[in-house]
Fold this sequence. Notes:
Mean pLDDT: 97
Radius of gyration: 14 Å
Structural class: alpha/beta
Number of strands: 7
Largest sheet: 7 strands, mixed
Order of helices and strands: EHEHEEHEHEEH
Distance between the termini: 8 Å
Helix content: 40-55%
Amino acid sequence: MTKTLLVVHHTPSPHCQAMFEAVLAGATDPQIEGVDVVRRPALSVSPADMLAADGYLLGSPANLGYISGALKHAFDVCYYPILDATRGRPFGLYLHGNEGTEGAERAVDGITTGLGWVKAAGYVVVSGRPGKTELEACWELGATVAASLMD
C-alpha cells in the first residue's frame, strides 16, 4: 500500500529553495519505496491535502522570530478539520532564519503537539546560506521522514 508524504512549504528565497530541494531529494530517494511525495505551497494547502497524507514535512523561513505567515495560514485553515484524524502521524521541520528561530520552533512544537503529530527527526535549522553540511541535513530529514512511512 502506497503512503503519502505531504511537503508543506513556504519558499520565498534562494536559501529556502535550496533547503526545499534537498529535502525533496532525500524524500524521493530511490531506496525509499511505497511513498508518494506531494508538494503544496503553504498558501494553497487544504484540509483535504492534510487528511490524505500519512506524514508531513514542513518548511518555512523564520520571520521576526516566528514561522512564516504562509505556514501559519496553512495551520489556521487546516487545524480543526484535521484535529482528530491525523493524530500519531510523523512530521519533520526545516527552518531558515538569520536569527531568532526559537519562536518558530516553539510555534511548530505547540501546533504539532495539539494535533498529536509525532516528531520523526530532529529539526533542521539553518542560519545564513546553507552549505554542504546543512543541505545534507535537509536531505537526511526528507529521507528519514519518508522512510518512517515505509511498510
